[in-house]
Amino acid sequence: MTVVREPEIVVIGAGVAGITMAYTLQRAGFSRFQVLEKGSDVGGVWHWNRYPGLTCDVPSQLYQFGFAPKPDWSSIWASGPEIQKYHRDVVERFGLTDRIRLNTTVVSADFDDASGRWTIVTDSGEQIGADFVICATGVLHNPATPDIPGLDEFGGEVVHTARWDDALETDGKRIAVIGTGSTGVQVVSALQPAAQSLTHFVRSPQWVLWAPMKLRQPRIVAAAFTRMPGLQNRLYDMMLWGSAILPDLVIHDTWRRRTAQLYARLSLRGQIRNRRLREDLTPDYQPLCKRQVISGTYYRAVRAANAELVTDKIDRITSNGIRTADGREHPTDVIVLATGFRAHDYMRPMRVTGRDGRGLDQIWADGPRAYRMTAIPGLPNLFTVLGPNSPTGSISLQYSAEVTARYIVEWLERFRRGELDTVEVTEEATAEFNRQVAEAMVPTVWNTGCNSWYFTEGGNIDLWPFTRSTLTTMLKTPDDAHFHFECITSTVSPTA
Question: Which of 64, 161, 196, 354 has the most beta carbons within 10 angstroms of its beta carbon?
Answer without folding.
Answer: 161
